[in-house]
Amino acid sequence: MIEDRRAAKVSRDEDGRPLSNRIRDGIRWWMEDGECWVSFQECFERNLGLALRTGQAKRCVRAAFWPHARVRWESETQAVAQFDAEAQERDAILGGLADKLCKVALRPLTPRELLAALPITNRERLRWTKSGRIPRHGTVNIRRGQIVAVPTYSVTVVEELLLDAGRIENWRASDLTNMG
């Protein structure tokens, strides 16, 4: 459960469009031999949250199509759906899928996901979170015998750090000068 309860905002991409529209544009589908092929490659390439959570995104896709279609994954980013539904229902399912994938893409990152996304060590993550350079989005309480609070990080902040690679190098350089 996330303790940091912020007002829900529509996340927008660099062009000012809602993220769900960008995800919707990244979903490609076509009919081949009576089967509906769906490609999510552009979605996974454009969205850090989906790229880090491909397993969750696949489960989301399977749940969105159920009970109207059976989904079979042909590759890491392509699925084949055998629809029992009409064309209008298929279009409605594909339209609603973007909103569901948007929720997966925007969910705050755990420390492990942050380390997978950024070229930093766990010690740097701890130090930079403590100093406020990497702002915490909130915390998640996990029960492991006792309750453990785990910090979470905003996907958009991490994407900004990935785009500005020099910032991390500057932080490392300033840490070295402050220690020595």
CATH architecture of the largest domain: 2-Layer Sandwich
- Strand proportion, as a percent range, falls in 15-25%
Radius of gyration: 19 Å
Overall pLDDT: 84
Judged by helices, strands and strand pairing, the structural class is alpha+beta
CATH class value of the largest domain: Alpha Beta
Instruction: Please report the distance between the alpha carbons of the first and last residues.
Output: 41 Å
Write up this protein.
- There is one protein chain.
- With 180 residues, the protein is an alpha+beta fold.
- The protein folds into two domains: 88 residues, Gyrase A, domain 2; 69 residues, no CATH class.
- The protein contains nine helices and six strands; from the N terminus they run αββαααββαααββαα.
- A four-stranded antiparallel beta sheet has the order 1-2-4-3, with helices on one face. Strands 5-6 form a two-stranded antiparallel sheet.
- Strand 3 and strand 4 form a beta hairpin.
- The N terminus is likely disordered.
Feature tags:
180 residues; two-stranded antiparallel sheet; elongated; disordered N terminus; 51% helix; Gyrase A, domain 2; single chain; four-stranded antiparallel β-sheet; alpha+beta
